Amino acid sequence: MRKLILTACAGGALAASSPAVIAATANVPFAGLVTATCVLTVGTPGVLAPNTDFTSLNSLAAGGTPGSVAILSTGASFKVSAIAPTVFTLAPPTGGDNVSFASTYQTTGATATGTTPGTTQTTIGAGTTNMTVNLAATKSAGNFTGGAYAAEVIVRCE
Amino acid sequence: MVMGLTAATPSNAQAMTPMRGEVKSFSDKFALRVFPANPYPHRIRVEVRVYDETFAPIAATVMPQAAMLAPQDNRSFMVVVPFEGQTERRVRVCTEAVPFTDQTTRLRTQVCGRFIAYKMN
């Protein structure tokens, strides 16, 4: 009985290693679609700092920092801009009076530009473009009074 | 009957899909479905707003108008826009978010898709 089992096992091993066994193969297709889109990821929001006579709050002033946005585009026809606000979202009483805003941006990476007015649209190429955004708020009359200020720049991709 | 446009299956880290589209409708309204996404590692509140070609707001129905999105998540928003007597209407549907609200210069991100709709008789 033991001899019979050993013989059967040996026969099975031979059959498994035999080149006569035919292997079947098949291709499994995969399909994917990447739609043309634009991803905006804010790296750091900006900080406004006053000038020495408190007539301007500017992210380019000492103590201020620009905002940064990473723009990932999977298409080549999208346009970006950085629209300045018209009012503060947060300001002490009279702090927002007689104030005008101006934004600028620069880009590096897939699309590089110099300092560009915020309302100007720049066509970005496919890939990652890094945008640096600056904002200035200027008083035409009076000074910025003490208190907290906040403003919102719209970074648009369309 | 309102005819709509639906995006292809959206993937993660897309701010909004689709960003271009054309719709034909037999009704006095047309519908769009867009998919805002959250590419951040924290949850954010996104809003969908509808504008005309000059970025003037349009009275459109957006369902839901705003939603919290989990990290790397996306969800669909339905937008229904009236033709308002026109036979062709060009609109911008924008996904908006303010991911960081505790700084003096907040950056509002706005990803806008351009859509054109035709009213069929």
Write up this protein.
The complex is a heterodimer of chains A (158) and B (121). With 158 residues, chain A is mainly β. Chain A has one helix spanning 2-17; strands spanning 38-44, 49-50, 56-58, 67-73, 79-83, 99-109, 113-117, 122-123, 127-139, 151-157. The model of chain A is unreliable at 4-15 (pLDDT under 50). Chain B has one domain: Sandwich (Immunoglobulin-like). In chain B, 0% of the residues lie in helices and 53% in strands. Chain B has no helices and ten strands. The N and C termini of chain B lie close together (12 Å). Strand 10 (151-157) of chain A pairs parallel with strand 10 of chain B.
CATH architecture of chain B: Sandwich
Q: What name does CATH use for the topology of chain B?
A: Immunoglobulin-like
Helix content class of chain A: 10-25%
Order of helices and strands of chain B: EEEEEEEEEE
CATH topology of chain A, anyone?
A: Immunoglobulin-like
For this structure, what is the CATH homologous superfamily of chain B?
Immunoglobulins
Fraction of helical residues of chain B: under 10%
Number of strands of chain A: 10
Shape of chain A, please? elongated
